[in-house]
């Protein structure tokens, strides 16, 4: 039985070491597997817990009703979109009156355009649980599109300047 295995491994175009020759009953080691160049082996599989743990990002859907009411009754602020990543689903707004940047989630953006850096926006503010120390922009509306930049609608249509 061993001679058949060594003959089969001797036919491959790549040299094999004696350490890679194993009995047929044992599983092959990951280093001895030959994957195509286009496929990379993953270091580890994703954690199954990642699908069970809710996202720590506060969204319109996970916000409590009382927090939504408090935010909607608050004053309207002005600012400029500092950055927004559609694939991640969040970004930051720089307040017009100065101060630290304010977090904005994709679910809190009103209107048909995806915000880009430089867009002027109006928003209301809400605290971020669990400690309620940081602020989040809610009911974000783009008031002026940044001049000279391409804008995209949520459906994927690109609008050139």
UniProtKB/TrEMBL annotation:
Output the Gene Ontology terms for molecular function.
mRNA 3'-UTR binding
The CSD domain sits at: 76-142
Give positions of region: Disordered.
Answer: 1-58
GO BP term (any one): regulation of mRNA stability
Q: Which UniProt keywords apply?
A: Phosphoprotein
GO CC annotation, single = cytoplasm
Quote the biased-composition stretches of kind Low complexity, using this chain's numbering. Answer: 12-24
- Biased region (Basic and acidic residues) positions are 36-45
Q: Which PROSITE patterns match?
A: CSD_1, CSD_2
Task: Point to the regions of Polar residues compositional bias.
Answer: 1-11
Pfam family of the protein (one):
CSD
Matches recorded under SMART domains: CSP
- What PANTHER family would the database entry show? CALCIUM-REGULATED HEAT STABLE PROTEIN CRHSP-24-RELATED, CALCIUM-REGULATED HEAT-STABLE PROTEIN 1
- Name listed for the protein in its UniProt record: Calcium-regulated heat-stable protein 1 isoform X1
Q: Which gene encodes it?
A: CARHSP1
